[in-house]
Amino acid sequence: MVKKDMDNKEILEKISDLCKPLTPEQREYLTENLTVYTFRKNEAIYSEGEFPTQLMCLLSGKVKIFKNGVSGRNQIIRVIKPVEYFAYRAYFAHQEFLTAAAAFEASTIAMIPMTTITKLVSSNNDLAWFFIKQLSVDLGIADERTVNLTQKHIRGRLAESILFLKESYGLEEDGCTLSIYLSREDLASLSNMTTSNAIRTLTNFASEKIIAIDGRKIKIISEDRLEKISKIG
User: Fold this and answer.
1) pTM of this structure
2) Is the backbone of residue 180 left (phi > 0), alpha (psi -120 to 50) or beta?
């Protein structure tokens, strides 16, 4: 983790949705207490069991939120894309972190002390509603992911994960290739399966001309078939 200097105007433009409910004085107070850091690929951002102290906003890059499982096997719970806020739920719940976070790739993150956030929330109802909405959206996504990862078969889970990555990070300029290159282990973790099952199912999808694989690159050939496989589970 390395501290990064950024122009306050540039930062405020990136987090404009958070700043929108604030008065000019409150925006100034926010920027006075905001710090920006860069993280290397695979670098830990926070760890399970730590007590949260910062609201985090991903300005650039990609981040995974994961849970340490049995036998050292991790489960990816969420993926974060610019500009999304994270790491604050546990603070509001007076809990330690139940998950961990790490950078998928080199990432830039703005951090605001939760003491600053709570002071602003206590004096600004619109900001409180902003966080209520954020938490509600995250809960809905988590509920849907839980159902998908527990009720779908392996093919359905992997198809759902590929579509989930497309929805989260989009496609490259060719309009087909996912703009995130995951290791097979991370893809398996995202899909709640073993790495060997993920590799086998990816190979089957490729042989069926549903996707094409080039190293860590995944190119979607038939999104309709992926959606059908995901839907039937």
Assistant:
1) 0.87
2) beta
